[in-house]
Amino acid sequence: QKEVEQNSGPLSVPEGAIASLNCTYSDRGSQSFFWYRQYSGKSPELIMSIYSNGDKEDGRFTAQLNKASQYVSLLIRDSQPSDSATYLCAVNNSWGKLQFGAGTQVVVTP
Amino acid sequence: SAVISQKPSRDICQRGTSLTIQCQVDSQVTMMFWYRQQPGQSLTLIATANQGSEATYESGFVIDKFPISRPNLTFSTLTVSNMSPEDSSIYLCSVYRDSAGNTGELFFGEGSRLTVL
User: Distances from the Cα of B76 to the Cαs of A3, A105, B9, B31, in angstroms?
Assistant: First the structure.
């Protein structure tokens, strides 16, 4: 059974601080990894994709991938109240058939 | 990305009835998928909508319960049949934009929130 594991949270982060989200996966053959943001009552929105080991930065977001450790993380710098949402880690097992983690709820407090 | 329109956006349904959800994409896509998100849960893949042929269902999902149509490369429907309260979920249409070296990305429609009484 392929699994994607995330801490459920909630992760409480002061405004302006860095939020750190972690995700582990069980399928060593996975090649593509994604972070989605989901606001309450809304559909998931893709915010980051990463395919190679190392860091990938996009604005205030940095995704980190370590395939040897089967670990992918997301850092949110200078957290804002608008970043309060559930963040879903997803792993591409086969051409668009993503497996999702349970999600980490992030709450940014003013 | 892609513009993916779903309707209805939400509905309240009676037990035993069926409802069809429509998904329209603004451009042709090869791969379309239907996901379900039950209350407080993460996303689960229901099936791959194949153009011109029967959908491919994931374990735990069957065609009689979730018939899917895909008449062309921009449109698909998902029917939730003989609904029970356990079918109360958000149903999400998604499209996969593939790039070289399996670096594609999956995008979601706005979702259809069904409540079954």
Answer: 29, 31, 15, 11
